[in-house]
Structure formats: structure tokens, C-alpha cells
Amino acid sequence: MPANLGSELPPTTAKVVEREVRSLLALSPAYQKLPPETQREMAAGMIRIGEYLAEPEGFRTNRLPGAITTMPASYEHFLEEVNFPVFVAGLIRGVFDAIVNASIKQMEAYGELVKKASEALDKFRKCNLSDEHARDWLAEKYPESFDREASGKLRLRPDADRSQLIARLRLLPVEGSLRTLDPTEIEKKLVPAARRRMAASRQQLLATMVLMG
Fold first, then answer.
1. Does residue 9 surpass a pLDDT of 50?
2. Which of 26, 31, 175, 176 has the most Cβ atoms closer than 10 angstroms to its Cβ?
3. What is the DSSP string of 132-190?
4. Are residues 52 and 145 in the same domain?
5. Into how many domains does the chain fold?
6. pLDDT of residue 171
């Protein structure tokens, strides 16, 4: 279990993940036999994957891929309920624990998988999905709430339940809060949030491949 990190400042995701990954790798005899450069690449890849699994879309979570729920609207309250370092320790061990007893050949093969997956994660993290893709996604996801204008932009349907929709949209990684869902708020807050969710979904698939690998 991780050491007590203190309560003054919450540890960053990167530091918690790095500590847990390196602690786990230190238990693997096969890892210790890899060339130093291979060790560095493998550790770095595992850390990148671990960071994403622990903090998809920039928000901490206590769920594994496939059931990720982000809570930006209640972030501070959420952190009070979750012992994040302990959660990350369990997450890292759950994902990577099998490598501790791997043979040298298995470790080398796993290292290649981690390298490819972590490179792909970085690529998807920078993926430039367009606003148009995001509008399409929102219109398909919430057809009872949004219409498309002649310009292609989204607008709230007159019969949409605004308060219920805002509550549902809080599960998206929206920066700030949604209040009116007027055209400006949709374009400035909701569309970018949909882009982040789409990119995160692609990352999630790759991270899950490593989880299953």
C-alpha cells in the first residue's frame, strides 16, 4: 500500500501513478534483466497508460475503463469521498500485476504492447476532432433535445426539458457549468466537451486493450 502522502496538498496523478508503477516493476525479476533503455521505455509507457486510466478527460475517477464516470461539477466533494492514492495503487496493480511473474520473453512482448498502446494514447490525446464531428455526436446522442440549424449548428428543441438535459450533460467534461443551453453556451462549452468525450472514448478502447493484455 502507498505511504501516507499527507493531507496538505493532494498528490498529482502523475506522481502517484509513477510511484506505483515503479514500485511494481521493482518486484519483477524479468524487468530487472531488460536493457536499461528498454526498462525506461516500458516504465514510461506504463506511466502514461496509468495516468489516463486514473484521470481520463482530465478528471479523476474511481472506475475502470468501460464504466468511467467523471464528475467535474462535484470534483472537490468527490475527492473527499475517494482515497485517491489508494485507488491508484489498486488500479495499477490490477492492470499490471501479471507482469511481476512474467518470463523475460513475456516481459519483452508486453513491453512492445505497452509501447504501441502508449504511443497511440498520446496520438489520440492530440487528435483534432472537429466541431462538426462533435455536433453530429450530440445530435445523435440527444435527438430528443437538439435540432440542427440550417447553418449546421445545434439548437435546443422548443419541447426539450432543459433542466433534465443539463443534469444529464453534467457527465460530459464541460469546463464550467451549463445554465441556459443557449446557442453561445452550446458552441463555447458543450461542443468542446463533446470533442473531449469522443477523443477519450478512443483512448479508452486502447487502454482497455492493455488492461486485457
1. no
2. 31
3. HHHHHHHHHH-TTTEEE-TTS-EEE-TT--HHHHHHHHTTS--SS--SS--HHHIIIII
4. no
5. 2
6. 84
